[in-house]
Amino acid sequence: MTILETSVNEKKLTSKDFVSDQEVRWCPGCGDYSILKQVQTVMPDLGRAREEFVFISGIGCSSRFPYYMETFGMHSIHGRATAIASGLKAARPDLSVWIVSGDGDSLSIGGNHTIHLLRRNFDVNMLVFNNQIYGLTKGQYSPTSEAGKITKSTPMGSIDHPFNPAALALGADGTFVARSMDRDPKHLQAILKRAYQHKGTSFVEIYQNCNVFNDGAFEIFTEKSSKKLETLFVEQGKPLIFGENNDKGIKLDGFKPVIVNLNEGHSANDLWIHDETDQVKANILARFFDSPEKEGHLPRPFGVFYTEDRPCYEDMMTHQLEEAASKGADLDKLIAGRETWIVN
Amino acid sequence: MLAAVNETVESVVIRFAGDSGDGMQLTGSQFTNTSALLGNDLATFPDFPAEIRAPIGTVAGVSGFQVHIGSSRIYTPGDSCDVLVVMNVAALKSNLRHLKKGGTIIANTDGFDAKNMRLAGVADDKNPLEDGSLEGYDVKKLDVTKITRAALTDSGLGVKEIDRCKNMFVLGLIYWMYHRPIENTVNFIESKFKKNPAVAEANVKVLKAGWNYGETTEAFASRYEVNKAKMDAGVYRGITGNVAATYGLIAASVKSELPLFLGSYPITPASDILHELSKYKNFGIKTFQAEDEIAAITSAIGAAFGGSLAITTSSGPGIALKTEAIGLATVLELPIVIVNVQRGGPSTGLPTKTEQADLLQAMYGRNGECPVAIVAAQSPTDCFDAAFEACRIAVEHMVPVFLLTDGYIANGSEPWKFPTTADLPTIKAAYSKPEDKKDGKFLPYERDEKLSRPWAIPGTPGLEHRIGGLEKQNGTGNISYDPANHEFMIHLRAEKIERIADYIPDQALDNGPEKGDLLILGWGGTYGALKTATRDLLAEGYSVAHAHLRHLNPMPKNLGNMLKNYKQVLIPELNSGQLIKIIRDKYFIDAKGLNKVQGLPFTTIEVKNKVKELISK
Ligand SMILES: Cc1ncc(C[n+]2csc(CCOP(=O)(O)OP(=O)(O)O)c2C)c(N)n1
Ligand code: SF4
Ligand SMILES: [Mg+2]
Fold first, then answer.
1. How far apart are CA A194 and CA A206, in angstroms?
2. What is the fold of B237-423?
3. Cβ <8 Å between A91 and B250
4. Ligand 1 within 6 A of A62 CB?
5. Where are the domains of chain A?
6. Which residues line ligand 2 (CB under 6 A)?
7. Which of A23, A157, A186, B389 has the greatest number of beta carbons closer than 10 A?
8. Predicted local confidence at residue B115, as pLDDT
9. What atom in ligand 1 is closest to the CA of residue A213?
10. pLDDT tens for each residue of B493-512
11. Which residue has the higher pLDDT, B196 or A265?
C-alpha cells in the first residue's frame, strides 16, 4: 500500500464517498431521492469500512437503489432480495447487509421470504419503500394500496384488503419494527441508525411518495398543515403525545387506545408511555391504522415500535459450526466411511 | 436328512418385499453388505412406496429392495429377480411381475391369511399360495411369524417386538441358501441395539433360527455359491448416489478451499443430499433449509456473491421454481451448482420413480437465451465424480452448472473403489484482490481467456461494485440498453459456455470398436443397462460400441467425429427423446431413439432387442 492510499483510507468517510458514478434515474420529485440521501448521510457515521456494506434489492423503482451506492450491491429479481440477503449473511456474518425493497417487492411477490427473514432474525436491515403503488410497472395497485383505489388494473376500485406492513412484521416475530417517511430527513436518519444498531432483522417501513402514480398518498402525514395532528412520533420512555400544540395524548383504556385532550384535565402522567420492548403494546400501536378520513381515528405512529433481543440465525449457525469443528474434518475418513473391504 | 445340493451360479438377483414395517430395506442392505465383504460385485435398488405410512398390509404399503450380486462385473440391479421374498400377499401381488419365469418365491404364509388377503384386495378364494396360480414357480411356504414367535417365547419381549424380528429369520435363511456368514449382521445388530441387549439377543437368535431352518428342514434342496468377482484391486465401500454426490460436493469444497453453502428445500428424491450435507458442519458446511425452492437458490446466489461454493439441490418441480433465479445467476456470472435428482413428471408426477425427462429443461428452460453448463452422473458411485466436476466448472468458469442425476442412481448403491484426497485435482478458485484495479478502476465484467469475469467478494477494499439482472455492459458491468451490446452479451455468454469444451476431456468409448455398425450413445442413469447390453451384444458377435456422455453442455469436441464412425447411432433415453433432439440438431445425423417413460429403468433385454432390430434392417 502506498502512503497516499493509507492516508486516504484513514480519512473519515463522508456521504460523498457513498455516491456511485451512476446517474440517478428516478422521476424528478420522487421520494426515493430523499431516502437515498439520508442513507448516504448516515453511512459514514456507522463506523464501518465502506467495503463491508452490501445493498441487495429486488425489482421496482426503489430497487434501483444499489446502483447509486458506492458499496457492494446486487439488483436482483422481483421479491427475492430478502432470500439473497439471507444467504449472503449466513455465508458472511462479517458484512453489513441492507435490503432495499418496494411494497410490491417485499409484500406481494416476496411476501413469503419477508416473513421468513423476520422469524429467522438474520442481522440485516430491511428498508421497505412503501408508496402504496407499483411504480416501475406504471401504476397498478399494490398490496398496501387502500381499498377502493382506482388504478389502471382497478378501474372500479380495488377490492383487495391492504396489508399493514408494521403489523405484518410484528406478526412474523420481527425483532425491530419501525416506520419513518421520506419527507422527514432527521427522523429517517435517526431510524436508519437505530436499524443499523439493532442486532437482528430491522424492518423499516418508509412512506415514500410516488409523485407520478400515487402523488400525495401520505400528504396528510407529511404536510406541515396536517402533520402534527395526524402523526404520532413515538420515543422510548416518552408519553404518546401529538396534536397541533402537543395537546393531545393517547391513553390505554384496558387494551383500547383512546385520545385524550391534555387541556381538559388529563396530565401527561396518565398517558401511555412508549416502551419499545413491550410486545403487546407494540401490537396495539402498529394497529393505529385507520384511514385519516374516519371519524375519531387515531394518529398514524412513526418511530421504533418494537425491539427485542433474540439470537440471530447466522450466530447460531456459526455456533453450531464451531461446535462441530471440534470433531475435525478429515475428507479421507469421511469418504471411506465406517465399512470398507479390500480386493486384492 | 439329505444334505442340500450345492450349485455355483455366476450371479443372482434377490428381491425382498414386504410391508413398509417389515424391515425389508434393512434386510436387503445387510445381505448387500455381507456379499460385498465376500468380494461379490453388486448393485442394489430400493423400491419405496410413495406414501409414508400407507395402511399396513395394502399394496400401496409394500416396500421392496432388489440386490444383484455376481462373480462377474455387475452394472445394474438386474432386469428381474431369481428369488422373490414376500412377507405378505400384497408384496406378492405387486412384485410377481419382477420375478423370472420359474423363479423361487419364499412366502411368509402368515401374511396370506384372510385379513391380509382382504387388505391386499385379493378375493377369499384366490389365495395365490393355494389356487394354483403360481404353477411353474418354485414356491417355498413357511410361517415366518409363527417360527419367530416360537423362537422367542422365553425372550420376555412383547408380541410386537417379537414380530419385528421376522425379517432376521428371512435373512438367516437367505444367508444359508447363498453360503453367506452371519457374523457381519450379528455385529451390526449388536452395535445397533447396544442399549437394548434383549432386543439384540432376540434378533441374533432369530437370524440363527433362519439359518438353521435351511440347514435342518428339507424344504430347500439346493444351496448356491456366488464366487468372488474379479474387481480392480483396492479398498472399497458401498455407497448410494445421493451420498456419493454429497461427498463429491464436500470434496470440491475442500479442493477449492471454498466454504460450501447449500440452499435447499426438501423434495423426493433429492432430500438425502440436504440431510447428508447437514451432518458435516465440521467441514464448515452451511446448510440452509429455505422456505421454498426460490429462496433455496437465491440464498445460494447470495452466498456465491459472498464467495461460497454455492449449491442448491432439488428435483423437477423445485427446479421449475428456480428457473428465474438461474437466469439471474447467468447474468450475474456467479458460480452455482444446481443439482436436479430427476423423478417422473410433469407436475408432481411420480415422486419415487425415475426418469430422464428434465434434460431439455436444463438446456433451454429459461427466458431469454440463457445457456448453462450441464453435467450428468451415470451411476451411484459416479455421482461423486460428476458432482466434483460440476463444482469445478462452476468455479473455474464462473457459470451456473446443472448436475443431473436421477432417482434410480440416487437411491441405488454399488461398491465404490473410492479415491483419496490426494488423488483429486485442485479446483482453482481465486477472488479478486484490491490490486486488481486498473487506473484506479475495477472492472467487474472484464474477461479472462475463459471469458469468465472476476469474483470480487464483498469485504475487499476498493472493489466495491454493483451487479444485477439488467443487461450488463461488458467490462464495466453498468446497466446497458444498447442493442449492439445486448447482442454481444448474449453471444458472449453462449461462447463462454462453449469454451468450457476446451477444458474437458475428449469423449471416450466405454466399450466396443472405434468403427462399426452401431453406436449406443447414452447419458445419465441408463449407463448400467447400456453397458451390460453392449457387453452381451459384443459377446454375441455384434459390431456395437457404447459411449456415455458426462458433459451435455457443452459436449466434448470430438463427439461429432465419433458419431460418424458408425453406420447407425442409437440414443436410448428414459423420456420421449430429448438428447436425440440435441444431437440431431447439432450434428445433423439420423440418430434413432429407444424411449421409455414408465418411471422404470431400461432392462438389458430391451436395449439388446432394439440394437438387433436396427442392425438386422
Ligand atoms: C417475476 C416478475 N414479475 C413481474 C415483474 C414486473 N414488476 C417489476 S417491478 C413490479 C412492481 C414494483 O412495485 P414495488 O415493489 O412496489 O416497487 P416500486 O416500483 O413501487 O418502487 C412488477 C410487478 C418482474 N420484474 N418480475
Ligand atoms: S414512478 Fe414513482 S416511484 Fe417510480 S421513480 Fe417515478 S416517482 Fe418514483
Ligand atoms: Mg411500490
1. 14
2. Rossmann fold (3.40.50)
3. no
4. yes
5. 13-217+311-322
6. A 26-27, 30, 32, 61, 131, 135, 210-213
7. B389
8. 95
9. 20
10. 999 999 999 999 999 999 99
11. B196
Question: Quick check: A7 pLDDT over 50?
Answer: no
Residue with cell 456459526: A318
A114 lines ligand 1 (CB under 6 A): no
Number of C-beta neighbours around residue B257 at 10 A:
11
Q: What is the dihedral of CA A251, A253, A259, A263, to 10 degrees?
A: -60
Looking at chain B, the domain(s) classified CATH 3.40.920.10 span: 5-225
For B5-225, the fitting CATH number among 1.10.10.10, 3.40.920.10, 3.30.420.150, 3.40.630.30 is 3.40.920.10
| SS3 category, A175 | coil
User: What is the third-level CATH fold of B516-616?
Assistant: Rossmann fold (3.40.50)
Q: Helix, strand or coil for residue B260? A: strand
**Is the CB of residue B144 less than 8 Å from the CB of residue B173?**
no
| Bridge partner list, B567 | none
Chain B hits for A328, CB-CB cut-off 8 Å, are: 282
Window 109-168 of A: residues touching B by CB (8 A cutoff) are 112-113, 116
Chain segment A204-217, per-residue pLDDT in tens: 999 999 999 999 99
Chain A nearest-CA distance from B450, in A, is 24
> Taking chain B (617 residues) in consecutive chunks of 10 residues, what is each chunk's mean pLDDT?
81 96 95 95 88 85 96 95 97 96 97 96 94 95 96 94 96 97 96 95 97 90 93 95 98 98 97 98 98 98 98 98 98 98 95 95 98 98 98 98 97 96 96 90 95 98 96 95 97 98 98 98 98 98 98 98 98 98 98 96 97 93
A135 C-beta closer than 6 A to ligand 1: yes
C-alpha to C-alpha distances, B10 to B214, B573, B580, B601, nearest whole angstrom: 22, 29, 36, 23
Q: Is A20 on the interface with B (CB under 8 A)?
A: yes
What's the CATH code, domain A13-217+311-322?
3.40.50.970
Span B220-242, pLDDT tens digits: 888 999 999 999 999 999 999 99
Q: Is A66 on the interface with B (CB under 8 A)?
A: yes
Find the Cα–Cα–Cα–Cα dihedral B448, B454, B455, B460, rounded to 10°: 140
Suggest the residue from B258, B464, B476 to mutate for an interface test with chain A (most A CBs closer than 10 A).
Answer: B464
pLDDT of residue A9: 52
- Partner A contacted by B460 (CB < 8 A): yes
Closest CA to A143 of A237, A79, A73: A79
Read off the pTM. Answer: 0.95
Q: Is B234 on the interface with A (CB under 8 A)?
A: yes
β-pairing, B592-595 vs B566-573, is: parallel
